[in-house]
Design brief:
Number of strands: 17
Structural class: alpha+beta
CATH class of the largest domain: Alpha Beta
Strand order of the largest sheet: 9-13-12-11-10-14-17-16-15
Number of helices: 13
Radius of gyration: 23 Å
Order of helices and strands: HEEEEHEHHEHEEHHEHEEEEHEHHEEEHH
CATH superfamily of the largest domain: Class II aldolase/adducin N-terminal domain
Shape: globular
Number of domains: 2
CATH topology of the largest domain: L-fuculose-1-phosphate Aldolase
Length: about 425
Amino acid sequence: MITRQQLIHPRDELMQTMDRIYRYRMTTTSGGNLSIRDENGDIWITPSRVDKGSLTRNDIVCVRSDGTVDGPHPPSSEFPFHLATYAARPDVRAIVHAHPVALVAFSICRQTPDTRLFHQAHSVCGRVGFAPYALPGSEELGKNIAASFAAGCDSVILENHGVVIAGESCAHAFQRFEAFEFAAKTIIKGRLLGRVRSLSDSQLELAHSRHVALDSFEPTSAHPPEKELRRQLSEFVRRGCRQRLLISTEGSFSARLGDNSFLITPTQQDRELLGIEDFVLVQSGRREAGKKASRAVFAHQAIYRKHPAVQAIVFAHPVNATAFSVTSTPFDTRTIPESYVFLRDVARAPYGVQFQAAGEIADYVSPAAPAAILENDGVLVTGSSVLDAFDRLEVLESTAEAVINARAIGDVSAMPEKAIADLRQAFRLP
């Protein structure tokens, strides 16, 4: 079956991907380049010296397999390393090169980020490599990069330059790129808090081997409450991606529809591109036919069963809050009134509890403690509505960022117990 993504023209796919990278502030107006190798062996590539913030489909250049160029601009000056990489790896169909700040920080320290922080990043990013410096646009740089990919690498740091990512499609390369930068950002933020913890082989296998098997059913109709929740989930998941609270390959969002039913994000689909039809209805332990529910579906189900007041759940990876998840530094919400009122005292769940079929994850949240830090797996937030859960997620990330920033200024001072008691009484907190 041909997917919608496979029907998008290379010009449009490159333009849309570059727009997203630029909008996420993962490249600059003049920096970075993308390419796709099509079925004919032609290479479609972003042009040289064209504003990345206003790129159009007509700006995209096609370098034919015979070397002729079709387009109004010359191809990117970095075309030689794209060509060399494709020659070294016949399986590669797309390449992303850019200068996102966290990965550049690693490149100028001549280090590579450890993707073992997260099971998903380790899986998505593939094998990580490092290519020695050479003049941008030179044949030597092409040889250095191609050698890394020929050795089996998928995500390569360029010494004092940036990063090159290869994938089996443009969407796949982008997802690797995003996950790699996310891991790099989390390491940098985490090191400001303390020692950063990586996952062992057995811990990585625990996540990799989990299996979601649900019987399916054919819904007969969708009533207005379901339609409204689909709209809300679609809008807030997209907003979460654009605000960098979610990334395209990680996290899940659900909303309760009834006592034994809820809607949840699907697995293996780009979060920002989800439409109302993509969310999966789960009813009495069965999934909507023709769709795959998030692999976190059992965790969501357990929380709804134990806590009737919970109406929405988010598992997410906002970078500052996630930095707390990869260190042992306690997360204190007693910083400003909003943080405590919205979040109360945030629990810390040990790694892997969210994967357990018995649903132990439900023990780490309650109406009196609506959020939890998940060791090496981001955060869990619950709410009385989709909006409430999203609002709490924003507050959680803002609080985490403020605390990390405050540590660069001086000692962090928490509010005294009397202030907390006054807040509990004034806002009638459970």
